[in-house]
Write a structure and sequence with these properties.
The chain has 415 residues and is α+β, with helices and mostly antiparallel strands. Helix content is 34%, strand content 22%. The strands form 7 sheets. The chain has a 4-stranded antiparallel β-sheet with strand order 2-1-3-14, with no helix packed on it. The chain has a 4-stranded antiparallel β-sheet with strand order 6-11-10-15. Strand 10 (179-183) and strand 11 (188-193) form a beta hairpin.
Length: 415
């Protein structure tokens, strides 16, 4: 049997498993289902079927159970005619504010251990996130194999908590009842904000929200970092740690940046390099001074050095969100409680109060049982309370959720 036949057989097996899941489990439809556009992807195809609509939850459930898609999506937007074939004919009526936090866009050291890429033009390969173009031939046809691990998902969860608690609730005043968190089923989380006051925001308004969360264009002087003259000397003053919004956030970010800085990551510019060295000699005293809004605890450290540290702090503490997802008012987002075709995990809603204890490798599992697969190559991973692997070119009997993960990742095929 050729490798193509093995993959096809494995995909048919996955499709049957997905069909059984949808036959036995009710999927949570989005609100105002009759105004949503739906899109689906299917095993054995890279194309998406979209511009579909359903009048009610029952008709959606019947479609899922009959067609068993590999991936299911619905629009964040509401339309008068969601099934119209052209976007300008759908008649846009508003859109939820959605955010996507994905480990693909986060700097995590684990990627160097479990992600790989290979140029399809010249065969050059490497580990970690794939480059924009091949360093050998310059080609852009690069295949990428990504994995998900606890470090990836814990980093994404921390970013999610920061987005919800520091920005949406604290800075924007959005109610917890208007925020819904969903594990994406793969390497991140989605946030749906369903506030009526935000529905009609256009792309420009949503871009302003993105820029605020990421700290784009932030000017330190507008947040209180100034040099003032008192009597015969110049003194630097700045925000305090107990202030709200970006002012207090900047202080925390600068303190954290200084605490983590050492000789290995000081910039090479001579002027800034020497002044930063002065700050690093007594980090704790500098931290105590900054918390009180006094930004000149060390003689000779000027505004330029602090502005440099503020830029580093903004990069550190600003929200890490996927910008196109939030800005696009016609975006499709994964259907909660559907299955993710790259893992077989559930796209799992997570109550905010349970977020800290949520474990994707335990709470997002959809299947029960065991099966045997031939694993080509897979790193060590956890499912439930058990760890498996690493595997390479071997037959393995596994719990069904572990086997499905490997099959979906094309790291294994059905034995």
């Amino acid at each position: 049997m050729s490798i193509e036949d093995k993959w096809a057989r494995s995909e048919a097996y996955l499709k049957n498993l997905f069909r059984k899941y949808y036959q036995e489990n009710r999927v949570n439809p989005p609100s105002s289902i009759e105004k949503r556009e739906f899109g689906f992807m299917f095993f054995g195809s890279q194309n998406m079927m979209r511009h579909l609509s359903f009048p009610d939850a029952e008709s959606l459930q019947r479609f899922l159970a009959f067609r068993a898609p590999s991936n299911a999506f619905h629009s964040a937007a509401y339309y008068a005619r969601p099934d119209a074939a052209r976007m300008d004919e759908k008649i846009w009526e508003g859109c939820d504010l959605v955010f996507d936090i994905d480990a693909d866009h986060l700097k995590t050291p684990c990627k160097e251990m479990h992600d790989k890429w290979a140029c399809q033009s010249c065969g050059q390969s490497g580990v970690g996130g794939k480059p924009e173009k091949c360093p050998s031939c310059g080609g852009q046809n690069i295949d990428e194999k990504t994995w998900l691990c606890e470090t990836c998902l814990e980093t994404a969860k921390n970013e999610l908590i920061k987005l919800v608690e520091d920005y949406l609730i604290t800075d924007f005043g959005i109610s917890m009842d208007e925020i819904r968190v969903v594990f994406s089923g793969h390497r991140g989380y989605h946030v749906h904000v369903t506030s009526d006051t935000l529905l009609d925001l256009d792309q420009n308004a949503r871009r302003e929200i993105i820029d605020y969360i990421k700290g784009v264009g932030l000017e330190p002087r507008y947040h209180g970092l100034v040099e003032v003259r008192e009597e015969r000397s110049k003194i630097i003053r700045g925000p305090r740690v107990d202030e709200e919004g970006w002012r207090g956030r900047l202080v925390k970010g600068v303190i954290e940046t200084i605490q983590l800085m050492d000789e290995s990551n000081i910039p090479q510019e001579r002027k800034i390099k020497n002044t930063l060295r002065s700050l690093l000699k007594d980090k704790n005293r500098v931290e105590a001074s900054l918390k009180e809004g006094i930004w000149d605890p060390v003689r000779g450290v000027g505004v330029e050095a602090w502005e440099y540290l503020v830029r580093l702090a903004v990069e550190r503490v600003g929200g890490k969100i996927d910008e196109p997802v939030t800005a696009d008012v016609r975006r499709l987002i994964r259907l909660p409680t559907s299955l993710h075709g790259k893992t077989g995990f559930k796209v799992c809603p997570v109550p905010l109060r349970e977020l800290s204890s949520f474990d994707p490798f335990k709470h997002a599992l959809a299947f029960k049982g065991d099966t045997t697969v031939h694993v080509e190559e897979a790193p060590r991973f956890r499912i439930g309370e058990e760890e498996f692997g690493p595997f390479k070119n071997e037959d393995v009997e596994l719990p069904l959720p572990a086997a499905v993960l490997l099959l979906c990742k094309r790291a294994a095929y059905l034995k």
